[in-house]
Amino acid sequence: MNVIEFDRATIEIGGRSVLVDTSLTIRQGEFVGVLGPNGAGKTTLMRAILGLLPPRAGTIRVLGDAPQRGNRDIGYLPQVRTVLPDLRVRGLDFIASSVHGERWGVPSLARADHIMIAKTLAAAGAGDLGARPLAEMSGGERQRLLLAQALLGEPRLLLLDEPLISLDYRYQESVIELVRRFARERNITVLFSAHELNQLIGALDRVLYLGNGRAALGTVEEVVTAPVLSQLYGADIDVVRADGHIFVLSRGRNVEHADHMHDDGHGHHHDHGHHA
Amino acid sequence: MPTICTTTATAIITIMATMLEYDFMRNAFAAAGVAAVVSGLVGYFLVLRGQTFAGHALGHIGFAGATGAALIGVASIWGLVGFTVAAGIGMGLLGERVSGRDVAVGVVLALALGFGLLFLHYYTAFATQVTALLFGNVLAVDRSTIATLIGLAMVTLGGLAAIMRPLIFASLQPELAEAKGVPLRFVSIAFLAIVALAVSESAQIVGILLVFALMVGPPATAQRLVTGLWSGMALSAGLALAEAWLGIAIAYHTDWPVSFCIAMLSALGYFLTRGSFLPRWKAKR
After folding, report:
1. Chain-chain contact of A98 with B177 (C-beta, under 8 angstroms)
2. Does A109 touch chain B (CB under 8 A)?
């Protein structure tokens, strides 16, 4: 079954085309890494799938229907995570706010909801975080909590927007491992955007590279090649494979690394100051 | 020991009894109680959202509304309510980004104070009324004002209850809330209108310039002490109530202005919990 279908879809944001006339399909249970230069539209793609940005032309189908805000089958971890530095709300209340958070009235959760939250926290290895205030968590702990939140309510599709950003290497590995294990066990489709391909290679089924209004979807062998990436980046790109790692180079410089260093291409502010 | 306890208890009861013999004291306790609970609850979200500056500005805007109303012969509380609610909605419409909001709020705040001054310029009659407006005069509250305060409190808390769930979600995680279908802008506008009502109430007790004492001090203190949302709200309302009542009692015995006593208690509570004087309560559950 196809979880995501783009049929000649064009997505624009602020008058700029992010995707032009793009068709692609992503099947159930696939783990897809979303990569590409800054400003290529990784976040925009996810927002379109969430129904926050209707396509300019063509159609998008998500789990068989047109994208719709508030789709319960989608778990989402946004890239811009505005956490107030002084936020002393405990982790449990923080993520519980997302459960039926769109309903009016005074918040109240059924017993079943409480059990579901506790189970998901435990499964994500975040059981100990529920009682701690957000302001006292490290970046890695906060990310684990947010990941657990994205997994609440048995989603069938996970959209994770740069979940590795501002985490140190050790936590990055554990985040990837957690997502992969969860997705495999429950046959969840995952879109996982990142700057660095190499860490994801072991977890990926396919990779979706974005750039220059185009998208290339396929296995790493098919997509991460000099001709395909040169077209997407609009520059001469070399792909060097060494010892199971892949380096994407432009005139000898590591493109992905350079991206990471200047990570403000989206005009978003990241939560950089909280390394574990 | 038991004799000391009994003596203290008797002394407190006697003091309370003497204070409550006076009509104006009963009114003061009632009015301050209503306004404090509303301020503590609404203020909790104001602090949670990092919008305390907006709350402050609404008070200043209310000043223009109150003086303007006095100028055209309307009760100043309705000028206060009308202006602050309109301004709250306007602020919500102006923008969502925090940085932009701060600048916009600052500009509107200065403009409102300017208007307040202009209205005062033409309305020179009662300087005492202006002082009451700016710094509060809870000892002069009459029964009809209490009825108005209770009515306003019901509207304010009713509104807060209606939007509470999406408000919490949108305050804690705006990006996710948007994706899940929360109308961020509407929630933001509705909340500022609710804040405006709470500011109008709080201003009746501590005055426009000291609304922070009831709307920011207690919730900020509560958020330092407990990390649960419900416990935080309850503690915030409780602290506001305690500070307001204790402030009136201290004022009664010292002859200091009530607003000063409340502001002092509010600041004291905050700095006590802020500093390392007290061990922080770690959440145990």
Report:
1. yes
2. no
Q: Which residues contact B139 (CB under 8 A, 6 or more apart)?
A: B24, B25, B28, B251, B258
| Structure tokens belonging to residue B264 | 């002092």
The number of distinct structural domains making up chain B is 1
Is the predicted pLDDT of residue B285 greater than 50, yes or no?
A: no
The per-residue pLDDT for B96 is 58
Q: How do residues B43-83 score in pLDDT, each as one tens digit?
A: 999 999 988 888 888 888 888 888 888 888 888 888 899 98
Token pair of B69, please?
């109303």
B131/A23: higher pLDDT: A23
Residue B126 lies in a domain: yes
Residue spans per domain, chain A? 2-84+156-261
Q: pTM score, two decimals? A: 0.88
**Domain of B128, in residue numbers:** 25-209
B285 touches chain A (CB under 8 A): yes
Kindly state whether residue B254 falls inside one of the protein's structural domains. Answer: no
Burial (Cβ within 10 Å: 0-12, 13-18, ≥19) of residue B56: buried
Beta bridge partners of B150: none
Nearest to A176 by CA among A156, A194, A150: A194
CATH of the domain at B161: 1.10.3470.10
Q: Is A89 on the interface with B (CB under 8 A)?
A: yes
Is any Cβ of chain B less than 8 angstroms from the Cβ of A240? Answer: no
**Residue A254: is it exposed, middle or buried by C-beta count within 10 angstroms (0-12/13-18/19+)?**
middle
- Phi-psi bin for A108: left (phi > 0), alpha (psi -120 to 50), beta? beta
**Residues 162-201 of chain B whose Cβ lies under 8 A from any Cβ of chain A:** 162-166, 168-169, 172-182
Contact: B162, A105; criterion CB under 8 Å:
yes
Q: CATH code for A2-84+156-261?
A: 3.40.50.300
Q: Which of B115, B111, B148 is nearest to B27 (CA)?
A: B148
Residue found under tokens 């991206």 = A259
pLDDT in tens, B159-213: 999 999 999 999 999 999 999 999 999 999 999 999 999 999 988 888 888 888 8
Mean pLDDT of B258-278: 85
Establish if B222 belongs to a structural domain: no
